[in-house]
Amino acid sequence: MSLTILGPERPDGVLPAVLARKGITGPVALVTAGWRYDEERDEPLRDALTNEVVNLRLYRRFRRVEQEATDLVAAYTAKQERLRQVKERYRLRFHDALSACVKLYAESRDLACPWTAQAVRHLQEADELFLTEAKRLHDEFAAAHRPLDHALVKSIRDDILADLGRCAALCIAGGHVAVLRNRMSFFGLGPELIKRPLFAWSAGAMVLTDRVLLYHDHTAHGPGTSELLDHGFGLLRQVVFLPHARERLDLSDHDHLAVLAARVAPRKLVGLHNGAVYEDGRYTGVPGAALIVSGDGSCHAENP
Amino acid sequence: MQRILDLLAELERARAPDRRAKLESFTRDVVFPLVENDHAVFFYWENEPTDAVFLQHWVFGLPSRIELRRIPNTDAFWLPLDLPKRARVEYKFEVVKEGRGRWAHDPRNPRRAFDPFGSNSVCPASSYQEPEWVKVDPLSRQGLLVEHSLVSRHWGELRKYKLYTPYGARPGKKYPLLVVHDGEDFLHFGGMRVLLDNLIHRHEVAPLMVAFTSGVQRNWEYAANPQQADFLVHDLVPEIRSRHPILAGPEFLGLMGASFGGVSSLYTALRHPGTFGRLLLQSGSFAFTDIGEHERGPMWDPIVTMVNDFRAAPPKIDAHVYQSCGTFESLIYYNRSLFPVFQSVATRARFTEAPDGHNWINWRDRLREALTWLFPGPLWMYYE
Predict the structure, then answer these.
(1) What is the total count of domains within chain B?
(2) What would the pLDDT profile of B240-259 be if each residue is shown by its tens digit?
(3) How far is B261 from A84, CA to CA, in rounded Å?
(4) Which residue from A8, A216, A224 is facing B384, i.e. has the nearest CB?
(5) Predicted local distance difference test score (pLDDT) of residue B63
(6) H-type alpha helices, chain A
(7) Do B103 and B202 fall into the same domain?
(8) Which residues share a beta bridge with B337?
(9) pLDDT value at residue A199
């Protein structure tokens, strides 16, 4: 499997250079479902690449399913609603537990302190329970409704695979991470991800890990409680990507970051910024563009 | 402060013919009031015989009219004033010449704040920063703003409103709806179109439709008037629903207003429970009495009755209520008093105070926090 993770590609990206360096000259398939209704406004990317670009149009294709396979979509929507209810319980369980954990850690700055260690375990258990429940809902829906066997979905998926089949690489852009993950998952793209060189950035990078973490410290109402969105596609299991970490996270709050790092361990927290490139297990992009969060919550640049 | 003290010392030492040159030098290319570390020095000098100068402001808690100090042997005046952190003070000078007083803008201060009655000079504390999200952002894509009209059964006449549709709204897709009292003023003085474009573009606020309505006999219509409440619920919202895709459910229907508009919003929610699930009440004119009569005039009678009744037996409000008020407003007392009531009867309640007055900039500056709370956007989901 050839997998290359990039930092955010807006406003300027490194994808054209990376594709050229890897000798990929043929058509590239593009997933921009995270851009939602702007999915097909991909001219800047087409202009920047010398390759032919084949947009897989997952967002638009799912719209067709919404319009024509109403029974299936009703069941899908009901499953998503149940997932939202699970998420509410997860938040109830999680919010105060995270606050307590950060306070306990701040007292000793020692993750081995039994109280802190137990508080971290509680967070991990809540994360695991949420993921287990989410998987159960997805599996039940798949077993009951077999969406990939639905005539319309099968036909659309065949079109997608035909588009993909003539491409030398697959590129997954960022955007709305839930929409991106859900569209890719709905059309069963997981097994296709390892069949050709894969390039992904921002939300596209997040969905390739085994769990997708949502985070933002700079909202109108202050730092939010970072929570899991769902499983990712699991191509990378030792890392949690944090695109735009410098803009979205309070990197001076070491207590919070230390707890976050402990919570996702043994995975590493990796901030990705413009110019970052991760390939073959190492970072080779612009110096300082990849940021590793250490166990004590401090950050250091992972330089090539 | 040191600069004005230095000037005073210089003028005291100066010979009479030199004082004018020193004042000219002091005022050249300088914007007043001087503000340093949230300490303001107001200054007036027009090089004309002047009897007195007063600071007229709208800061509840200060004497409403403060006399500036004359600099001895000149027609220049000054006044030091400590400002709370992040405060904004809107003011005018009352200048008395030949025994006659006249209100005027500060001639040495180009900063103005506008409202339907004109404009005021503005003195921001040095720690106040105009939010960047109120400014036109070339990256933000503009929603549509289209004027519509409807024949209102409850007013018995044609009523106009403007409907904002977010950029990229897809045919058939349904959106939340927010109805705004004093809509024209929120657009004109509160810059609401620009900030909606910005906050939606940045995914901070959910894409939503916004109906900007305005009163005709505004104060009477908004003063806890059942006709206005019925107009909103039975005329306006159904009219918009019939033409545009609006999400069902009270959680997708918001109502907001400032001052009397806040009163009308609360009154409508009480008269039609379960209709509006999101309320934004800015500087609500929620006057009440604990004993005796109020002294605000007959226009306030229905408001005081409504708020007294509400406080005596507050019904459950199935809505998220965001309330804000400036600490320089006389209404702060009423708003602070009502917040615990909202906390006890509303689904959720939040209250924000800001060191500002009863004005459009105060209401504008609170909109990010309010709208992101009432109609949160998918900010958490976007990683581009």
Answers:
(1) 2
(2) 999 998 999 999 999 999 99
(3) 35
(4) A8
(5) 85
(6) 15-21, 43-48, 58-68, 70-108, 114-145, 151-165, 177-186, 203-206, 245-248, 254-264
(7) no
(8) none
(9) 98
Say if B138 is an interface residue toward chain A (CB within 8 Å): no
Residue for token pair 């563009």? A289
User: How does pLDDT run across A174-218, given as a tens digit for each residue?
Assistant: 999 999 999 999 999 999 999 999 999 999 999 999 999 999 999
B82 plus B193 within the same structural domain: no
Lowest mean pLDDT among A213-227, B81-95, B128-142, B205-219: A213-227
Residue B243: both structure tokens together: 């033409």
Instruction: Output the six-digit token pair for A149.
Output: 């066997």
Gap from A202 CA to chain B (nearest CA, Å): 5
Looking up tokens 């509303």 gives: B346
Single residue among B103, B124, B145 that ends a domain in this structure: B124
**Residue B68: which CATH number?**
2.60.40.10
Residues B161 and B254 in one domain: yes
What local confidence, expressed as pLDDT, does residue A106 receive?
97
- CB within 8 Å: A219 and B379: yes
Q: What are the structure tokens assigned to A279, written together?
A: 């390939």
The minimal CB distance from A176 to the residues B170, B368, B382 is found for B382
User: Would the CB atoms of A244 and B383 count as touching at under 8 Å?
Assistant: yes
The pLDDT tens digits for B202-251 are 999 999 999 999 999 999 999 999 999 999 999 999 999 999 989 999 99
Q: Which of residues 161-220 of B touch A (CB under 8 A)?
A: 168, 170, 204
CA distance B384 to chain A (A): 5
- Tens-digit pLDDT profile for residues A160-172: 999 999 999 999 9
Count of pairs with CB atoms under 8 A, one residue in A, one in B? 48
B351 touching chain A per CB within 8 A: no
Residue B88: give the domain boundaries. 2-124
Instruction: For strands A211-214 and A227-231, give the pairing.
Output: antiparallel
- Check CB contact under 8 Å for A220 and B368: yes
Q: Is B132 on the interface with A (CB under 8 A)?
A: no
